[in-house]
Amino acid sequence: MTQVAQAAQAGKAAGVSFPISRHDHQPVSRHDRLPIAALAGLLVAVLVAAAVAAASGPVQIPLSAFPRLLWGAPAPDEALWRNVLLDIRIPRVLFGMLAGAALALTGAVMQALFRNPLAEPGLIGISAGGALGAVGAIVLAGGGFWLLAPAAFAGSLLATALAYALGRRHPGVAGLLLAGIAINTVAGSLIGLLTYVADDVQLRDLTFWSMGSVAGANWRLLAFLGPWILLLSIWLLRQWRVLNALLLGEREAQHLGYAIVAVRRKLVLATALVVGPLVAATGGIAFVGLIVPHLVRLTLGANHRWLLPAGMLAGALALTLADWLARVAIAPAELPIGLVTSLVGGPFFLWLLARGGKS
Amino acid sequence: MSAGGQGGVASARPPAAGPAAGLLARDISVSRGRKPVLRGVSLHLRPGELVALLGANGAGKSTLMAALAGELPVHAGAVALDGRPLGEVSAAAQARRRAVLPQSASLTFDLEVDELVAMGAYPHPGLAPAEVQALAARALDLADAAALRGRRYRELSGGEQQRVQLARVLVQCLGAREPGQARYLLLDEPTASLDPRHQHGLLRAAAGLARSDEVGVLAILHDVNLAARWCDRLVLLADGGVAADGPPDAVLDAQLLQRVYGASVTLLPYPRLPGRPLVLFE
Predict the structure, then answer these.
(1) Most CB atoms within 10 A, among A200, A260, B52, B214?
(2) What distance in Å separates the CA atoms of residue A203 and residue A196, rounded to the nearest whole number?
(3) Is the peptide bond before A332 cis (omega within 30 degrees of 0)?
């Protein structure tokens, strides 16, 4: 008895001697230095890429002029530079960064949620569902972002739920991909049907969906989508523990204290809330959500504490570079950004499949 | 010895946990699909004891453990955690008191051993990182997995993976800091891919944990002798019911074992330990 009582006493003493401290405020351990250095490096790379992208285009703006264009008094003959930079380039670059970060983040979240390295909003039909919602809104109700966004959200949510249900019924990589093919086909054919009945003005809006673009960026759109996506992203970033737990399996995550049905529902909802409005604004930009988390995992590992923020930065970097490439490759004409990401992403996806879908 | 230990536990704990303390399945019936697997099974796991769950393949061992782990709906009867029905206790609160070692666990994406073991602290957000590291070090020692630190989980052999997973659930179990709080550890075939040295090491660690940290440990085992050597109590399942429940020398009856396992059995005295017979299957 005394031995056990002592143990209980020791437990009590230990309980008292360690004050409660939330481990959200963890000090940096030796183990965390590499990821933190990687995050810092990525942040610098994103800023450099953003500056270069904002400087180049049909009107070349020297980087050295940026400070006085933004904060100082530009020379009278630099008014054009200032207008191009503030009204066109910066919103567009910011929008590309936002879209890239959001796509990479939702890709990483889905891959953990579906326990599948190939889960990605585009591949499994979530973007197509969103596009269908948006196209439906354009053709049947006239369009406008404020109508498109909720319609795209509803389409994304429906597609996510469908992919999840079908993917679970046929476990493994194949089930989810097959579900994605089916959803993409159905959504694609319905979009085709809507295209058929659309008038000329609507058609011009519709072509935009096929490839995706960040050319529609403007400050008003950013003022809504920026806070919306950032707030949801912050919530998603905070889910890193449950996403790690899900790597073990749903049952194991439950044993670690996560009410998995509710968690799953929240994660699917948050993902659709990000992807839906994003698709409404950019159309479908393929492969960013697949490639970026994969590359980050290869270098930093799968711990979502680092994977999610690093993925957001790498996604922002990737889409900034892709959009820059799209604008300068055949200047003064412009490639659709989705074409650039597909040109890089398609072969990468083939390579991934050839390796057996392993990560 | 075990009765004396429990008396001590009861008096050291605040009255709220008192007589109801334990992970208790009372008269539970469970079906998998349309097939009834358990019929009116009762099992009481008390803090501080190491119990082996034995039985032939298909006897319902894993189903009973799944019911105790809150994974399966129970058709009749009830499962209670320290006197409260499982359904009334949140998943988070259950995880602070009960850890479960799955039979085998794959990872969707690769993690480092240290990262995986630290996940055992997720149910205990009050732990500071230094405390988590100390717990992980102790758990890795107990699981004899300290040498695997810094390795990637998927590079490990099956037995090594099992020891790392054990370290993870030990962190979960040891991380509970509420004074006097009973804790439970469910191990589903923990020795399945371990060599003999690690099989004994694991059960020695489990027995030690039960004594020193007031943990109730239930382990599904196939090796009857391993169970008899280390466990305070054996529960023998047969045909979806409890065939025997008691100390090793009471449960290990030649005729009973013969009937349950369908193999002929000879009992021998264990060389050094009275009350822990050796079973020879032929």
Answers:
(1) B52
(2) 9
(3) yes
- pLDDT for B118: 95
> Does the interface ipTM go beyond 0.85?
yes
Chain B interface test: which of A4, A114, A238, A352 (most B C-beta within 10 Å)? A4
Q: How far lies B206's CA from each of A283, B65, B121, B244, in Å?
A: 56, 17, 19, 22
Which residues of chain A lie closer than 8 angstroms to B126, CB-CB? 18, 20-22
* Cα–Cα dist B77/A100, whole Å: 53
Low-confidence ranges of chain A (pLDDT < 70): 1-31, 143, 171-174, 205, 207-211, 356-359
Residues of chain B with pLDDT under 50: 1-17
What whole-number distance in Å separates Cα of residue B246 and Cα of residue B235?
7
Find chain A residues with C-beta within 8 A of B131's C-beta.
Answer: 18
Beta strands at B241-246 and B265-268: parallel, antiparallel or unpaired: unpaired
CA distance A130 to chain B (A): 27
State residue A209's pLDDT score: 62
* Chain B residues closer than 8 Å to A311 by CB: none
Q: What is the pLDDT of residues A37-64, one digit of tens each?
A: 999 999 999 999 999 999 988 888 888 8
Strand-by-strand arrangement of the B84-85 sheet: B35-45, B23-32, B76-81, B84-85
B270 membership: H or E segment, kind and range: none
- Domains defined for chain B, CATH in brackets: 23-240 (3.40.50.300)
Q: Name residues whose C-beta falls within 8 Å of residue B266's C-beta, 6 or more positions apart in sequence.
A: B254, B279, B280, B282
Interface of A with B in 24-43 (CB under 8 A): 26-27, 29, 31
Closest residue in B to A245 (Cα) is: B119
**Best residue in B108, B111, B162 to probe A by mutation, most A CBs within 10 Å?**
B108
Question: Is B109 in contact with A247 (Cβ distance < 8 A)?
Answer: yes
Q: DSSP string of A199-241?
A: -HHHHHHHHHHHH--STT--HHHHHHHHHHHHHHHHHHHTTHH
Of B131, B211, B213, the CB nearest to A18: B131
Helix (H, G, I), strand (E, B) or coil at A285: coil
Q: What is the pLDDT of residue A165?
A: 82
Token couple for A303: 């711990």
- CA-to-CA distance for B67 and B46, rounded, in angstroms? 16
Q: Which residues of A touch B88 (CB under 8 A)?
A: none
Shortest CA gap A20–chain B (Å): 5
Summarised one tens digit per residue, pLDDT across range A146-205 is: 787 788 888 888 888 888 788 777 765 567 778 888 898 999 899 888 888 888 777 776
Minimal Cα distance from A111: which residue of B?
B108
User: Is A17 in the B-facing interface, judged by CB distances under 8 Å?
Assistant: no
